[in-house]
Amino acid sequence: MRREARAFAGAAVVFLLANQMAFGGEKHSKSFAGIASYYDKNYRGRTARGDRYDPTKFTAAHRTLPFGTRLRVTGPNKRSVVVEVNDRGPFIKTRVLDLSYAAATELRMIGHGLVRVTAEVQEPPAAQ
């Protein structure tokens, strides 16, 4: 009986750890760097959060950051813009952000396509 109880407890611990890692155990650092792309100015559609994409707003897509997270994104020319995460992506693994057309314009990315950026978390999203 004791052996069964220990086996059950061990299985429960493994399950809880696996569940935490899969659903919410991911930690986000305060800053990251990598390649960013941007949405085409003619793109029309909805974001993963359900918003209608607006090319005039400063928004971004990130794979895992919570919706509502605000990021200060800085390009190689030292220009920066604050964006709000409202979509999921980019879906190309070598990229870290997809920026709205307005954010890309502010960073002077238009015409360059891909630009190396740094991003710093400005504020966590409000508790939902």
From TrEMBL:
CDD domains, sorted: DPBB_RlpA-like
Nucleotidyltransferase recorded as keyword: no
Sorted UniProt keywords: Cell wall biogenesis/degradation, Lyase
Pfam name, any one: DPBB_1
Biological process, per Gene Ontology: cell wall organization; peptidoglycan metabolic process
Organism domain of life: Bacteria
InterPro entries on file: RlpA (IPR034718), RlpA-like_DPBB (IPR009009), RlpA-like_sf (IPR036908), RplA (IPR012997)
NCBIfam families documented for this protein: rlpA
HAMAP family for the chain: RlpA
Function text: Lytic transglycosylase with a strong preference for naked glycan strands that lack stem peptides.
Name under which the protein is recorded: Endolytic peptidoglycan transglycosylase RlpA
Species for this entry: Pseudolabrys taiwanensis
Gene this chain is encoded by: rlpA
